[in-house]
Design brief:
single chain; differentiation; mainly alpha; RNA polymerase II cis-regulatory region sequence-specific DNA binding
């Protein structure tokens, strides 16, 4: 939570932050809002598709035409196997790797 403490603002005669009027939000036409939303959703889906394609290449038993749900199921199965075999040692390696990688 953010608290607003009454404190004088520079250049004001005893006015507090809570007494200073804020600008009302600008009106954004519905079609512009809709297009922004659609654009963000397209980008989200593109990122999901790219990550699933990469996962598809990394997980054994997945083919190029494997659907996303099956890819995720195989990935979960494979990760459970890796965790069972390597345990906490693999977590340490993953932490080292992910600390050096930046995602865009």
């Amino acid at each position: 939570r953010r608290r607003i403490h009454p404190s004088p603002t520079p250049g004001s005669a005893g006015e507090t932050r809570s007494s200073v009027k804020k600008k009302p939000p600008q009106f954004v036409p519905p079609n512009v809002r809709r297009e922004r939303h659609n654009s963000k959703e397209r980008e989200r889906r593109r990122r999901i598709r790219l990550c699933c394609d990469e996962l598809n290449m990394l997980v054994p038993f997945c083919q190029a035409d494997t659907d996303k749900v099956t890819t995720l199921q195989w990935a979960a199965t494979y990760l459970r196997y890796v965790n069972k075999i390597y345990g906490d040692a693999i977590k340490e390696v993953c932490l080292l790797i992910t600390c050096k990688v930046t995602y865009v």
